[in-house]
Amino acid sequence: MSNIIGLGESACALAKEFKKYPQYTVYNILTGDKRVYGKKFYIEPQNDPEQYEAQCPSLKKFLNSVADDVLFIVDGSEPVSATSLKILSEIRECNITILYLKTNIKMLSEREKLNEQMVRGVLQEYARSAVFEKIIFVDLELVGTILPNMTVKTYYSTIRQTIASTLHMIEIFSRTAADHGTLATPHEASRILTIGIKDFETGEENMFFPLDYPREKCYYYAINEEKLATDVTLLEKINMQISEAGHDQAVVSYGIYSTNYADDYIYAAYRSSAIQK
Questions:
Q1: Full domain range(s) for residue 75
Q2: DSSP state of 180
Q3: Interacting residues of 109 by C-beta distance below 8 A, sequence separation 6+
């Protein structure tokens, strides 16, 4: 995920959180007066999703430096999401992961609801057919219920920070050899995902989206290096948690990683082959 592309206001707000990490280059596509400004591209506002799709300009020049791995963030409730496929066609040679943000769609018009369903369905089908590497679903409101002590002012920023940091750590660990444990190779058909966090002490598990039929679960244990060296009960506790996670016949794997953090963290990725309705 060396390149992050946000489409629309909500997606670009989340994409901004990745700027704190030096590994990523962030591109923003927003609505406004049509112009290019640095790593921002503004698409002229339209009256409905159909017009956004029909009037979408070429972004090939804007995205000409994008290569290799891409995380494309989109919120299907925004009408500009109708331009997703046309924009993605400009970078079709890249390894594309979709991060799909689910928000409250109750206030949308019927036309906008149909657009959200269409965008969500089409992106999933493209992921299942391996046009994209995978699609990751995140429910912003659900993440909000997980996090404690948020004020009105910090609500969305805290949610975005949590999503970005979780994705970043999973990305880092998935590319790093574990101190212990083995991460299973994902099944070819399991390209529909969500992510989550797990409390090490209580075992409470929180998915960022209520994924239907998760058949693969992967846990990344970020453990303080001193605890790894001194806690003789640690491995037994982890093995018990992994055993419990497989109760629904899911394929479960894990890796333990040494960190210098004072606290311990568990990040999780869940995979399914089923279309999410």
A1: 3-132
A2: B
A3: none
